[in-house]
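Memo to structure team: turn this sequence into structure tokens by end of day. - J.P.
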Amino acid sequence: MAKIKSIEYFRVLPRWLFVKICDEEDGYGWGEATLEGHTEAVEGTLNALIKRFVGYEADNIEFLWQDVYRASFYRGGPTMMSALSGIDIALWDLKARKLNVPIYQLLGGRVRDKVKVYSWIGGHRPSEVENAAKARIAQGFKAIKMNATGDIDWLDSPRVLESSIERLKTVQNLGLDVALDFHGRIHKPMAKQLAKALEPHHPLFIEEPLLSEHPEGIKQLSKLTTCPIALGERLYSRWDVKRFLQDTSVDILQPDVSHCGGLSELRRIAAMAEAYDVAIAPHCPLGPIALAACMQFALSTQNFVIQEMSLGIHYNTEAGEHDITNYIKDSSVWDVKDGYVEALPGVGLGIEVDEEEVRRVAQTAQPWLNKGFIGPDGAIREW
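Reply from structure team:
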């Protein structure tokens, strides 16, 4: 056993926060603590945790996790759990590297040989989504996700929902499965109408049809539609998830490994979900370290169904040349073939981080700020 010698974090483009932990025997591991739009808050939390945990035994991942969660008194929430996620993932990577095995071997071994994936497309018109979808087909994808609507009022004209159906049909006609992300931006009067209108067209799932802070509304909506309901990116622990499982209001949970307490908590959430016949499709519009952690989880988890990839997502392209193919030494590990990515071949997370690039970009990277919508009346709308 070796004690933690150092914990560092690196803010990098487009909007990611990486964590590196080293032990006294020169072992190392990488994690990701990205919390989109709240980088500086997570950095502040990491500063406090670094003071606490340098000198801890690096092998005692569960002890450290419990210490962060239970000794903090004010526990949970996106900021603390994202900081904990970065540390947790890095410790799993460190341990697996020391043992010269991929992380999935420490989680019970593989239950599958490759991982089904999907990516995101943008576009507000059928012609725009058609071109974007064709590009994803050329990359090897068989499934995509796109926004269900643009910004929309609490109660809006039913006509604003018509383009959602047309865009869905356009992409489906190309042979792709399509998930629609309501993004929590639609309120109940419109969400009920849209979910019903989508039913005959069989979307892969509808994501965050209402914000997770409305569990009673999601329960009601689940009884009104046959569309599979997915949510979970804004749930940060098994305690947050518990209500939705008990309500039987969700079909697919989407915890984010960089928000929910890392691999340790993601595994526990999946085990809870399996007992309710609920699938797991981890949220991950994030960086290569988070995606690698999701791959290790997917390879070793029975009720995993499909993995989000941020390859070419607009958040990445808007920042220039920084994508999940950056910051790692072999970007071919993300090649998609017939809708799948092969099991990562390396030890630990299965990727080798390009530390030189990470440190170079971190010198000047600025925090990414959340966007938002303002309605024609000047009122703030859900984003």
